[in-house]
Structures are given as C-alpha cells and as structure tokens.
C-alpha cells in the first residue's frame, strides 16, 4: 500500500538541534518539576481576570462544553456525519518525529481503527482529521451553545469578511485556508497514543476541547525553546541526553470531557491520551493575544502569524510571475493539502490582517505586556 509522506509536517518547526542542547552545561540531579501552573477557570473567572485575558497564558476553561452534544460523539456517529473527510491514520502511534500516516477516507479509517485489518500492529492507533469547511459546518451544530468569551474571537467572526468575492463569502478560498493551514482538527486516539513534543509552525493560539476520554498535556512557553527538543519524551525524560530540559519552566495538566484548554502561539505541547477512545477537537485563534517580546521581529502575534503564512505563500507565488512555483501534492495524493490559493495570499490575507489588528487593539489597546 502506498504511504503518504507527510509534507504537511511543515506544521512543526524543528530547528533546535540536539547538539545545541547538549552543548549546554549539564545540571546534575536536576529534574523537570513542571512548576508552571495551568489554572482551571470558569468563563466568569476568565472574563474578570486581566492576566488571563491577555491571551499570553495557558489555562483550562470549564463549565460550558459539558452541554454540547459533541460530548456524546461516537465513531459511528462521526462516520455518518463526515465520511468524506480525509484522515491521517497512524497505525503505530505518533510518538516519534518521523511517524508516518496513511491517508484514508474517514469511513475507512474508522473501520480500520475499530477492527484492524490491513494494518495490524501492537501499538495504539491514532487519527488526525484536517476538517474542510464542509465537515466543520456539519460538526459545529454539535458545539451549541457556544458562549465563548471575546478572547475566543474566532474565524466565524472574521473569515467571511476578509475572504469575499463580490458581496459573498468566497467559499473555495475559505476552504483552501482551512486545509492548507490545518485550521480545524479532530483528534482521535487510543489510550497511550501521543503526538511527539513540538510547537506549531504558525503563530496562532490554540484551543482544544476534550469531548470524549481524558488527555494529559505537557506545555512549555516559547521562551523556553532553548531548553527543548522534539526528541524529548516529557512523560519519561532522558536527562542523560537532555539535561537542559530540567531548566525549562513547563507545566502539565489533565483535561476531561467538556473542558477546553487554551495556549498561546508557538507554545510547545506534548499530548498523551489516557482513555480509549479519546476524541478532541482543536481550532486556532488569531488577533486575540496581547503583544509579547519572544516572537522575534514583531511583538504582535497576529503580525507574526501573517508573516508565517506569507512565507508559505512565497514558496508558491511570486509577484509578477504567473506560474505557481511549488508542487501541488494533492494532485498525486487526493486528500493531501493543496497549495495556498494565490487570491488568498495576495488579496485576502492582507485584509484579514487588518481585522486581526483591529480586534487585538480593541481587546488590549496599545498595552505593552512584558513576559
Ligand atoms: C487570574 O488568574 C491567575 C491564574 O489563575 C491567578 O493567579 C490570579 O490570581 C487571577 N487574578 C485575579 C485578579 O483573579
Ligand atoms: C448524552 O447522552 C446521554 C445518554 O443518552 C443523555 O442523557 C445526555 O443528556 C446527552 N448529553 C448531551 C449533552 O446531549
Ligand atoms: C442535541 O441532541 C438532541 C438529541 O439528539 C437534540 O434533540 C437537540 O436538539 C440537540 N441540541 C442541539 C443544541 O443541537
């Protein structure tokens, strides 16, 4: 059977060489104590808490998603709703940086997950579903009521304003934005599955709702990057290889059904499913964080996010050159992410950036928040 090479691993920025970490002075007998607190708050507590509302801290929000019909999701129900979606299917867990997925349609993936046939292994199985606009529209009906506070200003509020053709939302462009940026994900795993420690390649913050089963998280701020590597198993660290990990300020938290975890852009994360199945749903946010000083060239996360996207765009489109400069792997692998559309890169994203900037300014003013 053909194997799909996940070019989509551009998602992960893996530029911290092990050598760099090993060069740091070993700190004897020091271990990672996960001292970073990841508080649990209600929506009311969040609404009143200026620190958390900066969007610069991780926290678990509880007390609203328990009512969502999505907490009753089963694999059979999902198969009925989104049989057409593509799944990155990992028959042998996803604990290593090089884990390779098979690309299956959702209905086939679920069959294989429930009754392994072609891909029997002794490892727990894991699936990632990159939702299209169509799949997301079907599933979002089960996320009602959605009393998300205004720091959760999401694409429902902006995307059809900046991606418009004439006086209508440009649906193919929005769909392209979803799938090229892995914007909405459904994650389904068996107990023991884990996605290796990494940070995402674009500066959007993340929310993830745990719907079924429990999941453990390790989270480390971007400021700790010099101590971190995607080869660290944060659940069983090898301090002889990664002594510097002990020096990073990281936290751990377990999230239960109906709870939502938020973390800021570029934070490192490492997941571990505690039950079978674990089903969670994740989305990205932009234009919600206050300024921060750990991003490099710009202090505004949404400006950095824009730069990350334009860097991807530049690999495919150059001003004045009509031909696309990058491959379209979706022609060879139906279901793999296509290149970004030119109109998204050149016309829509600049308009979206204006909306993100306005929102961030309305939320945080011109405050300079130091980390
Ligand atoms: C805001 O939340 C943080 C983290 O839980 C907490 O330490 C702090 O006391 C809270 N601030 C207020 C004003 O409630
Ligand atoms: C989930 O299903 C159970 C049992 O059928 C039912 O009692 C409960 O109300 C449902 N919850 C939601 C949020 O629909
Ligand atoms: C949740 O599911 C129940 C039972 O299927 C249905 O009656 C109800 O309308 C749903 N609620 C929402 C908000 O969709």
TrEMBL record:
The lineage of its organism: Eukaryota, Sar, Alveolata, Dinophyceae, Suessiales. It comes from Durusdinium trenchii. It comes from the Eukaryota. The keyword Cell membrane does not apply. PANTHER family: HYPOXIA-INDUCIBLE FACTOR 1 ALPHA INHIBITOR-RELATED (PTHR12461), HYPOXIA-INDUCIBLE FACTOR 1-ALPHA INHIBITOR (PTHR12461:SF105). Residues 144-306 form the JmjC domain. Residues 1-23 form the signal peptide. InterPro entries: Cupin_8, JmjC_dom. Keywords: Signal. This is JmjC domain-containing protein.
